[in-house]
Design brief:
alpha+beta; Immunoglobulin-like; five-stranded mixed sheet; 29% helix; 19% strand
Length: 260
């Protein structure tokens, strides 16, 4: 007996339909509208983050940045943030305060390098009480970009070391704004706002050098130090780097000479 071809085709189609589910449409599924996306966020590309640099979090300076005056030596404060401070300058200026003469060594090292050789080290001459600085440009020393450094001052009499962290980063949009600034005071404010602590300190210190009697400049520098919880250094900066009594304290050798 012959089976009609139509019946065979229908039977085969029925068997296939039991084994493979039919696809309703060959078209790819349409993406959900932005408002209905599972993440709940817009499908538009996120806005770029601000180019202003920020201090690294949790990268605090181990050890001290200050020491009090005692029988071994004078009070010393390195002017540095309590974390990795930023600079745009390849050859920044570093500042510290000492309440009297002392033999000290200044050293700069890469923080995360296996090479123990310092980038720079120098024995500092005995200097009078006040705020002092070292300009790396005058020493032919340059910091690499995006490399963290530790700079330290060691009191030879005790071996005590005070330190700060510094890192050179690209200036981003800050350089354009600095070019438009007409005064060092304006530059200091821009650097401070953009997070370049060391550059803000240098700008206001240069302004003080030009106008040493400008109390507002001394207050600006003190505020930078106070911001980093350097209270004693801030108090000194407010007084223009002079000891509390307003006069330079004589060294212990000088005191002995006077008594003899």
């Amino acid at each position: 007996m012959k089976i009609p071809l139509l019946s065979i085709s229908t039977s085969i189609a029925a068997l296939v339909s039991l084994q493979c589910p039919q696809v309703a449409s060959a078209e790819p599924p349409k993406p959900l509208p932005a408002k209905q996306a599972s993440s709940g966020k817009s499908s538009k590309s996120p806005k770029k983050e601000e180019t202003k640099p920020k201090y690294p979090e949790g990268d605090t300076v181990p050890g001290g940045r200050t020491r009090g005056e005692d029988s071994i030596g004078p009070a010393i404060s390195v002017f540095a943030p309590n974390r990795e401070g930023l600079t745009t300058q390849p050859q920044p200026t570093l500042y510290w305060y000492q309440s009297g003469p002392a033999i000290m060594e200044l050293q700069i090292c890469e923080r995360k390098s296996d090479d123990a050789t310092p980038l720079f080290e120098v024995r500092l001459p005995k200097q009078t009480a006040g705020i002092h600085s070292i300009n790396l440009a005058e020493r032919g020393v340059a910091l690499k970009e995006n490399v963290g450094y530790r700079w330290s001052v060691q009191l030879q009499a005790s071996g005590e070391t005070l330190m700060g962290f510094i890192k050179r980063v690209p200036p981003a949009e800050t350089a354009k704004r600095i070019e438009k600034a007409s005064t060092l005071e304006q530059q200091a404010k821009i650097y401070k706002m953009d997070g370049f602590w060391y550059d803000a300190l240098k700008a206001i210190s240069l302004a003080i050098a030009q106008e040493p009697d400008n109390a507002a400049f001394h207050t600006m520098r003190a505020d930078l130090l106070r911001q980093e919880k350097l209270k004693d250094a801030a108090a000194v900066a407010e007084r223009g780097g002079k000891p509390e009594d307003g006069n330079q304290k004589p060294s212990k050798t000088e005191k002995k000479k006077k008594t003899n």
